[in-house]
Amino acid sequence: MNINHCMGQNSENSETNLLLKKFDFESQIINGYHELLPQELKESQADLLIDIEKKYNRQEIRKTLLNFIQQVYSHDEIKKFSSMEPESIIEDNQNKFKELENKLEGYYDQMYLEVNRALSGVKIIDIPIQSKPFEFFTINRPDGIYEATAYDNFLPQNIQINPKPLIPAAKFISIEILQIDAYTNSINIQLNLNDQNLIEKIIKNQKADLVLIIDKKLISIVSHEPLFQNNSLILTSEWSLNDLQMIKDTLNRDVY
Q: Distance between CA 149 and CA 227 in Å, rounded?
């Protein structure tokens, strides 16, 4: 073992820790994490947050922040900063400090997205394919129709979904799969009058989008006025006719 090398590493880590404390970055990120996940939410959704809690514990956050500092500043700069006030460190090289701030902001944005994905039960299982926009992730939710927010056509995996279904699949009276044209398929769900009125009310008041989840797959999204025909909710879907038929068969097996 090279004792001098180890002593040098310890000195650098100590000086980097000191720089971290000067700007209180660690507390800011940890406080942001706790705001995203208050204790009662951690307890109620514990099964969905196991990996997130490991990734964003205090030790891992500190390790990441120290790494950011060492990526931006040289050893000599970090050593020099140990005797300087925060304002002087910023002024020493504003471009580098801005680079560090950008890394911290990017880290928080990543944390925000991953926490909300976990709370929505979203798990990335493949790379995105434009022609199959819902097939690269799953959603760990029981079958049913859910209220959802933050849907983005370009980033569907960032959708935020309520933990409990608005209408559980057990309340579906029947399901029919139809081909509308060469590129569009529909899944038609017969509902009772109360559930029809509930869907129309939510969409009319623009409270949320509605999503259909079956077999942990996002099947369809209702963002505008819902279409009802003969007491059935008509949903267009990006899934193929064969996929929808298999999804329907899975639902029939599990629910009916």
A: 20
